[in-house]
Amino acid sequence: MRAYETVLKSIETDLRSGKIKIGDQLPGERALAETHGISRASVRDAIRILDAMGMVRTSAGSGPNSGAVVISEPAIGLSATLRLHVASRQLSVADIVESRILLETWAASSADLSSDPVRSDTVLRQTADLLTTMDDPGLDREEFHDLDAQFHVLLSSLAGNAVIEAMMESLRLSISDYVSESVTSDDAWQNISQVLRTQHHSIHQAVAAGDGASAATLLREHIEWFYTESRQL
């Protein structure tokens, strides 16, 4: 076992036992090095890995929010890993897209708006606001893609499955460059964005009506359509 792995294993054990909780500040470099009998350089390696995995947030200075504070943002670590493997061509964009379809259609079919009406109403209101913003024909393309991604992740959250939500976010981030670079012509983008807007509204209406089957079908058609269109440009 490498030196930094002893720190990772120790923190995992403490998280599982409840000794360390989200929001807690980890001991400083010196204390961790002495506890595990390793160098401070190895401790720094461990903290950098935890940071990349979305498990800690680091900041300089002193006080309760300085140093390494435990967080939990699983999509950060998952997306970083996926992006590199997509770039290496060991994972294809087509497979990422198909995985996204599987997750989103399952989430749409499984969403139960009545299980948590307050949260469901909040998500539907937030997604409706996103659609209103995306309806602006003068909206910057990059901002449109960002809002589009938020729309899909929020709708998926209605299934109430935190793992699905994290995976959706990571899949979105892993191919964000591909999506941004897939349509370079302004004329082509105007035509495509109009279709996307119409599809988004249809999906939202089906979800709001509690028609999971229709929402799932519309989502599959929507994602497949954009992927096919972007490949032809």
TrEMBL record:
Domain of life: Bacteria
Keyword Lipoprotein: no
SMART domains assigned to the protein according to its UniProt record, in alphabetical order: FCD, HTH_GNTR
Residue stretches spanning the membrane: none
Molecular function GO labels: DNA binding; DNA-binding transcription factor activity
Domain annotation HTH gntR-type: ranges: 1-73
Annotated keywords: DNA-binding, Transcription, Transcription regulation
Name of the protein: GntR family transcriptional regulator
Source species: Paeniglutamicibacter gangotriensis Lz1y
